[in-house]
Design brief:
7-stranded mixed β-sheet, globular, 7 strands, 277 residues, 12% strand, 41% helix, homotetramer
Amino acid sequence: MTTTPLMQSRLPRRHFLARCATCMAAGFVPSILFARQPPPPPAAPGALDLVDDLVAANRILAREGVVDAYGHVSARHTRATNRFLLSRSVAPELVTAADVMEYDLEGHAVSPAGRSSYLERFIHSEIYKARSDVNAIVHCHTPSIIPFGASTVRLQPIYLMSSFIAKGVPVFEIRDAGGMTDMLVSDGRLGRALAQVLADKPAALMRGHGAVVVGQTIPTVVGRSIYLDVNARLQAEAIALEGKVTYLDSEEARRWDAANGTYDRAWELWKRKAIPK
Amino acid sequence: MTTTPLMQSRLPRRHFLARCATCMAAGFVPSILFARQPPPPPAAPGALDLVDDLVAANRILAREGVVDAYGHVSARHTRATNRFLLSRSVAPELVTAADVMEYDLEGHAVSPAGRSSYLERFIHSEIYKARSDVNAIVHCHTPSIIPFGASTVRLQPIYLMSSFIAKGVPVFEIRDAGGMTDMLVSDGRLGRALAQVLADKPAALMRGHGAVVVGQTIPTVVGRSIYLDVNARLQAEAIALEGKVTYLDSEEARRWDAANGTYDRAWELWKRKAIPK
Amino acid sequence: MTTTPLMQSRLPRRHFLARCATCMAAGFVPSILFARQPPPPPAAPGALDLVDDLVAANRILAREGVVDAYGHVSARHTRATNRFLLSRSVAPELVTAADVMEYDLEGHAVSPAGRSSYLERFIHSEIYKARSDVNAIVHCHTPSIIPFGASTVRLQPIYLMSSFIAKGVPVFEIRDAGGMTDMLVSDGRLGRALAQVLADKPAALMRGHGAVVVGQTIPTVVGRSIYLDVNARLQAEAIALEGKVTYLDSEEARRWDAANGTYDRAWELWKRKAIPK
Amino acid sequence: MTTTPLMQSRLPRRHFLARCATCMAAGFVPSILFARQPPPPPAAPGALDLVDDLVAANRILAREGVVDAYGHVSARHTRATNRFLLSRSVAPELVTAADVMEYDLEGHAVSPAGRSSYLERFIHSEIYKARSDVNAIVHCHTPSIIPFGASTVRLQPIYLMSSFIAKGVPVFEIRDAGGMTDMLVSDGRLGRALAQVLADKPAALMRGHGAVVVGQTIPTVVGRSIYLDVNARLQAEAIALEGKVTYLDSEEARRWDAANGTYDRAWELWKRKAIPK
């Protein structure tokens, strides 16, 4: 076990040890340090903050109605970019640090220790493989987006908070990839098909199922998931008014994204409400 | 009173006695043990777990908005398959173990002990009689399903969580069975008419009234009731978008149901939120 | 002060005195006992229960979203049928026994004691004058009913819980009675015009304003107000489905009302949730 | 530092000093007393009440769903009419007295003390400059109003609570003023363009963004923001019914506004719920 890189960080040793103890006591085994082969780079303290943020993301998404008992959120490992963190198979609202597991890009749990995995972890593994710019992924069944996934009407960005939609939100039709299935992206082949439809976009709807949302950081992917939901509801309402609707121009969206697309102020609020101190 | 089968179970004697005492103190008389004729098989410990689950189901359905002050949920007795458990006439949100009563398949309370019965208990008795595969039944007035019960537009499965709808959700028109009524299924004749319309389906809407949902287990019938509600809302939204809507294919639904249709992960979450420890 | 009728009641003297003390301490002066002319019959203990129920009704209507900061609920005095009880001018959610005042049928507060009155108390006074069958009245601005008050589309009973709508829910157009006004029913003349439009119906919508709902008892008028709201939402949803909609037949409604129209089971639940013990 | 005017007020010296201490301890520096040039009139105790009300307004708007993590509310300084109070850049739900800063009418913070400012403070500065009748301003992204900002369908007053809409709610199209932008009113030029579109109206929608609402007092602007939201939802529902809709006549609206447009009763309730004592 190489602790040197950790010691080099700015995190005081005492603080680090306390956090390790907490994580281990809570059942979060930093498996990456013990994994036999191939030996990944040692975990950075960032990975511990990442676990905190990932737990927060689970709670926030549940509190904001993006996920119910189903759906999941993952984050790419800070240093071991061929690894990602994802909870064991449990409702997002109940996720604690002890539930967070490490996976490789084939969707194998590194140290399962008897914990069961989400059937659809291949959504995450295949997108991390295909998209080096993506560090966080949400899979959800948010009610408001289901009608758009089933309809020929496409999502359009109705206001600045959901401007990322201007980049395009394709619909994944699992029949194209797998014919008649049980609708689940439960193997690498279907995961790759989904990643191909997603391409370089920030999100894709999944017909009859839900959506996948990606981002560079956990706060970004959480913000996108929340405002994807709001946009779906508001676009439906705008259509029902039966007037002409003006959506964001892609140039307006690009400029807003460049300056403001990280949802930082919202992240602080969501976290405070989902995890009271 | 034959206690032998109970003693043979894996439940320690001390635990069993404590639970019996609790149930009896709370007013839940395991009447099946005392009933005169025909003598049913003795209650299994399963029946006690069933009471816990039935109380949980009542609270969950209230918390999730499936029922308000009206509506009820029952479960077939674990061993005495010609008996079922149903609360006395009280709002589901207030049901405790003490309110759970035992009924025969004619809708007679075995040991009422002065407690009043739901007027529409015949919904339950007649469906248990007609459907040996059904072990749990919900009757509800969930708002979202009322428009579909009153409309010529039929429910269709819009996503995997409500895939059971692909088997068909017929509409019970009480006028066909009883002409002008007070709308209530308050006797065996109307209960039989409803069971005939339900046939082998997982649910039926009742025009101007609500729905009946059935399943093999309590978690399944609770999950179906919750996602019947979600589906009704989402299908209405999809229709309002005025594009073409693609619903689940019956083969997709069949495959998902076979692998995942039990809502187990959700049941744990719902129970934890409805009955805090 | 004649206490004899009160003493004749089944309420033990000690209990009665304690409640009087509570009411008086809380500022509820049983003014009817002191009023000079015409001397009304002495208050029955029923009036004290009525205050409890009226406070509960205010809290329930706020909790269920029927009223926000505006709206009010009154009850006819149990024995002095030419008097009614109504809170001073305060948001329903904040009403306590101390806020309850007594009014005559001209809308005059019997013992205001410096407390201000709702501007629209004439809604109540004129309906009590015109409808001897009415013992409780709600005036509300419930959001869901506003579109129906403004539209040429009429409310119809979509399910058994709102069957009373089958008797008819006329729309009061204040322009017919008063031309251009500030929209408020703030005098006896406008109150009489509203009572005439209401006629013998259970409720009337008020264009650009809200509704008035009446009933024989407080639980009935509260239940009708709550399910008027639900019906408005569900009817709008049924219309949006664009199929043919079957509403309750007036004979079905009449039969249901006769047997079940009192919302007693719901009242117990609503009260328990609005006023925790 | 001139304290004389403050001492002349009706506020007892002891009370005033206590409140100053509280405010200063909390980080609210009454900067107006220290500002060098041009020396504004000394702050009145009213400014301290104003801070309380401004904090309450932030919490109320968050609680009522008018703002989420974004949006802001300001108030013109009671005596220094060329100054206004606005929180530092933080989610409205989290605002405390310590976050309230003072700005001049060019949008410069008088004593930032390291605190960051909302990018869109120019919405406030330019409207206060143009509208001497306005003492409070809300900027929000309330979901229900977004469809109306994007649609050719205009807001109309559907009931008395939102009668102010009868004065007109224009839509600000930022493309007219700035061509392709990042959608934010982040400088004086865009602020002036918005103020020009607002003209003498009580509110303006901002296409693809949200709205600005103005009023003579904080309770008025909060009430208008809340009922702008309700009106948007109800007007959309009325349109969906597909009957003919009758909106408030401008004369009805004018009369209601004159007598009742201050939302005082609601303000007391909102405050009590948003800031429990």
